[in-house]
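User: Hello! I'm new to structural biology and keep hearing that structure can be predicted from sequence alone. Could you demonstrate with Transcriptional regulator, AraC family with amidase-like domain? Please show me the input and the output so I can see what each looks like.

Assistant: Of course. The first part below is the input, the amino acid sequence of Transcriptional regulator, AraC family with amidase-like domain. The second part is the output, the predicted structure written as tokens.
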Amino acid sequence: MTRVVFLLVPQLHLLDLAGPAQVFSTAADHGLDYAVSYVAAREDVTTAQGLPLRAATDWPDLGPADLLLVPGWRSPATAGGPRLTEAQAAQVVAHHERGGTVGSVCSGAFALGQAGLLAGRRCTTHHELQDELARRHPEAAVLRDRLFVVDDRVVTSAGIASGIDLALHLVAARHGPAAAARVARGMVVYARRSGDAAQDSAMLRHRSHLSDAVHHVQDLIDVRFAEPLRLADLAAAAGVSERTLTRRFVDATGMTPLRYQSVLRLERAEHLIAQGSPTESAARAVGFGDARMLRRLRAGAR
């Protein structure tokens, strides 16, 4: 069980909270082992949008596998001011020191700065607050034009809807991109990936269509792209003929099912190579018999 704890501060933005909370809740609906909870200094929490919230005041026991996230708040003139109590700041630091991951959405980055977790780390926040964050925390490297930044189990995001991107990234990092793609599809969002990775993935880039049969086949390919897949088997799973599946797949994605599989293999192989894997090892890991086909695909993609 992975606990995801949201630390709520007064005047928080609803979407800063609701977006990532929905990601982890949807992930749990898909069978991933997440439990979401909310803590605050007081039980009643005001929001920037006027909807009152109720949170626990007692902290759950957190382990290294658990996540602690701080949503942002509305207060442009005092965004950088202290928002956490001393006890809350200590809890944030203690969780990170135990090996846990700590994250923020939008101005929540200032809370991580208050806790001393931005010193010597790369981070980001909403574009309207980046100058203020850099001024208040000169020891941090504030990166601009990023949806989110990951640095030594401290993850910060640009704000508002980008909290969804951050949460999907965390799901992908723990369970793989196919799991994140299923969650994104369940939420009907077009997810983007940022930081050092590509800003979008093939699994998500070709999902903006309404064909249930094609989505179903994509689900199968996403999970089994490293295996040999027969068009006849994919068509049977979709309940259509091979010709019908190919036509619908091309209409929906611009490519055939097997071409889609090759794109997924290439994207995963590029990631492995970027992480230091030899080309031959990366080729075999994604289902190619040797590196020759991978080299041809890489050359054709350039």
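User: So the tokens describe the shape?

Assistant: Right, they're a compact way of writing down the 3D structure. Reading them back into a model, for example: The domain at 2-177 is CATH 3.40.50.880 (Rossmann fold).
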